[in-house]
């Protein structure tokens, strides 16, 4: 057995009981692998974060995620409001608690996981959300866990104006709570929006994606970086690419939120989701890719292409690699942090710790194993003696 394979087996075994929070340093020292990723222009010690949803609703969850060593957490999506408290997207602020973690068979016959849930956005007050943002800010500063709010703002019909007061009031309050520039923000275009009549018109969606980043920047009292979390629209792959093109003014694109099951009226994930997402991202010319050039480490000006973030059915390091080789510089997961404990190889720790343990150290499908595998196949080269995770995104869409 090669020395690195033996070391990986050993790490996998011993970290089953407890994953060291500084595991990226350990990976660098032991395997000479640099796991650095990037999210919204920020360098992060590894590419794995938590997507917005039911697992980022309170400070306790954030503390556990900081302790586990997650790179970033996106807070549950807030529904924007104006200074009178009016919410044009109020239909998304509904209360629903019960979630069902289920197996789901894909069109190609593979069984994966999905979370079935009828709820939508944040259903408590703006003040409570701001308290969570402040808790996140303190954790970001003290513990290095990047915490990012997510918002659903007014989306007008074609010919109607944007309700600027919602953009101004909500962004202003978030900026006040966060205090320091830049404010990092995700704007969610959700699967339930994709299933809504509002999203039946392609030209309308294109206009939103084109205009929303600028609306948010114009509404913010301090510099802001905007990630658009794109939905899987109910149109073909070409339209998915058209949406990415339209969203070029964003600083990052999260690709792509869950699919919408019209019959059951619920969002879903699993292999159908990753199949679609990877197929779309596989198209040469996808924005965010700069063949042959080193991605910049500073936030890009809006003239450059947005950084890509993968989401959807990420349950292994191998799947992280699949997104990375299509240009994604980080990934955000939800479902994999919700599985029954028996599904994780780790025997102790929080779900975030157990998930990270499998994603990074699994001897066949963990990130370390797949990066070493790519090296052995001659598809990834060491620079300065190290393999770099971000080189996967840099080399995306080069001939493999
Ligand atoms: C129960 C549940 C609630 C979610 N809520 C939100 C949300 O409020 N805002 C958002 O942007 N994404 C939301 N998501 C999407 C996730 O952040 C993630 O992008 C998506 O589920 C795909 O990743 P996964 O396959 O790892 O779950 C939600 C997902 C689930 C399962």
Description:
- β12 and β13 form a beta hairpin.
- The two termini are 27 Å apart.
- It is built from 13 helices and 16 strands.
- By secondary structure, it is α/β, with parallel strands linked by helices.
- α5 (164-178) crosses α7 and α10 (317-324) packs across α12.
- It has an 8-stranded parallel beta barrel, surrounded by 5 helices. A two-stranded parallel ribbon has the order 1-16.
Write a brief structural summary.
The protein is of the alpha/beta class and 400 residues long. Helix content is 35%, strand content 18%. The chain contains 13 helices and 16 strands.
Features:
two-stranded parallel ribbon, 18% strand, alpha/beta, 13 helices, single chain, 16 strands, binds flavin mononucleotide, 400 residues
What is the secondary structure topology, with strand pairs?
Blueprint: H1 3-14, H2 23-31, E1 33-34, E2 37-39, E3 42-44, E4 48-50, H3 59-68, E5 72-79, E6 100-105, E7 111-116, H4 126-143, E8 146-152, H5 164-178, E9 183-188, H6 191-194, H7 202-219, E10 224-229, H8 237-246, E11 252-255, E12 259-261, E13 266-268, H9 271-281, E14 307-311, H10 317-324, E15 328-333, H11 351-361, H12 367-376, E16 387-388, H13 390-394
Parallel strand pairs: 1-16, 4-5, 4-15, 5-8, 8-9, 9-10, 10-11, 11-14, 14-15
Antiparallel strand pairs: 2-3, 6-7, 12-13
Helix pairs in contact: 3-4, 4-5, 5-7, 7-8, 8-9, 10-12
The protein binds flavin mononucleotide.
